[in-house]
Amino acid sequence: MNHKNALTPWLFIGPAVLLLIMFSLLPILVSLLISFTDIDLIGLGNWDMVEFVAFENFIALFQDPLFHRSIFNTLVYVSIGVPLVIICSLSVALMLNYMSNKLFSFFRVLFYVPSITNIVAIAVVWGFLYNMDVGLFNFIINSLGLQNVPWLEHPFMAKISLIILAVWKGIGINMLIYLAALQSIPRSFYEAADIDGANKFQKLRYITIPSLSYATFFVTVTTLIGWLQFFEEPFVMTGGGPLDGTMSMALFIYERGFQYNEFGYAAAASLILFIFIIVATLIQFTFNKSKEN
Amino acid sequence: MKNRFEKLLVMSVLLIGGFIVSIPFIWMILSSFKSEREARTMPPTFWPQEFTFEHYINLFQNLNFGTYFTNTLIIVLFAMLGLLFNTMAGYGFAKFQFKGKEAVFIAVLATMMIPAQVSMIPVYLLLNQMGLTNTMAGIILPGLIAAFNIFLIRQFMTTIPNDLIESARIDGAKEFRIFFQIIIPLSKPVLAVQAILTFVGAWNSFLWPLIVANDQALYTLSVGLALLQGQHSSSFALQMAGATVMVIPVLILFIFVQRYIVEGFNTTGIK
Fold first, then answer.
1. What are the φ/ψ torsions at residue B96 (nearest 5 degrees)?
2. How far apart are CA A239 and CA B38, in angstroms?
3. Of A110, A136, A176, which has the smallest distance from its Cβ to B44's Cβ?
4. Structural domain count, chain A
5. For the ABC transmembrane type-1 domain, which residue ranges apply (chain B) (predicted)?
6. Tens digits of per-residue pLDDT, A105-131?
7. Of A193, A238, A255, B164, which is most buried by a Cβ count within 10 Å?
8. Residue B58 falls inside a structural domain
9. Within a 10 A sphere around the Cβ of B171, how many other Cβ atoms?
10. What is the pTM of this model?
């Protein structure tokens, strides 16, 4: 396009690009640098006190049992949470697609609402529901004649409880992605299947699910990345406990950085999390490519 | 016959599912109007026996929620400025040719890969160097730009015909006049969705205010609520009132605008 001044485009993209350099690109460099130092609160005030420690932070991390715990917990979150989110959001989308228009809109809003709700508020509310003695969930379970469930008091159960809450929140947005994909499947596919005498499950198995593969790919990657960053739920509800049973990698980084002020150590941990995220994304992309070929 | 049975089955599954999904909201709102004693009774009451507003009054009179509310609104306001920057950048990438454009655009997209949990430590150190920790500017700046939004806006703006912009230029219109008087009105569909999502995102923002603000005078609602939960850990009705204050404004907004979001998803989202 003809615009008189070569500076004009930069006036438009300038503010955004500057802020992105400042708060996204530069921080990665800073992170790389400080992860090789022992910077803490003292070092922050006086840069002369900061020392280069080579790989010491990383070596210490590999020997830190709490960091191992946080990786293990994060992997549990991911391996249970991601499939659950996909199954739930796909089932809701399939059922919604079956409904008449009015009910469709109503239920779509209902299932979407949790995903726009503030996560701290959600965690506070669920903390009450999960309460061992006065929570609604245990009341319901008691009235069914069952024992109290230690929702947030047992290290493994607490992980499951946090997963349930995060799945509840995660359905909405992914359901919308699936609905959009479902509505773009050509009618003619199903008509052809009808002529061939296919039943409902055959149509689901051979037309619907394969047609949704791109949507599933997208949902998997975004959900996976989201779960790797699991933070607010354990932060508000359990503080990483009981017995570090809900400590996630993101929470570990936060605590090291902002409660113990070990910035160098926390930055090193955050780089490991970053590598996890990049690897997860790359595996997903290559997996999807090989499936396409 | 078989079809009707199926419809009924799907319907009841959805109804039950929908009810389960709404339980936390129902329980939150009802409990917030109960007295502290009633909220803790077992078996619990469903409907509040004596309706009380004491927790809401307490929140705003004694627990600083008024300040948190104002701070949250300030953040929302500045997030809209961020949306303007995103929109300008989207336009720049969509409708201008310039040297290095591809490289800059790829760099912008690459920032989508960097999660806040990875950049929080270095951003905090940078803000500290600039003297912006514990300031409103420090809370607002890191979250102002979102590469994904720039991308979506750019995608939409590439569909605007070049002729429109050219003829405006020939008529002697200045570049920013073209942007504000032609481009923005034409981009209403995508900008409406972006404005809503930006509002929700800013209203709910938690991580930066948590890290940057030390002073209670700078807390947002979400940070204030987390603090409330820590300090009044057994006052459940009070906590529910705090959560209701956070959730209801977004809920009401959403009910009015949900059509735009859901349909915007179909036009600008992923298929």
1. -125, 145
2. 27
3. A136
4. 1
5. 68-257
6. 888 888 888 888 888 888 888 888 888
7. A238
8. no
9. 8
10. 0.86
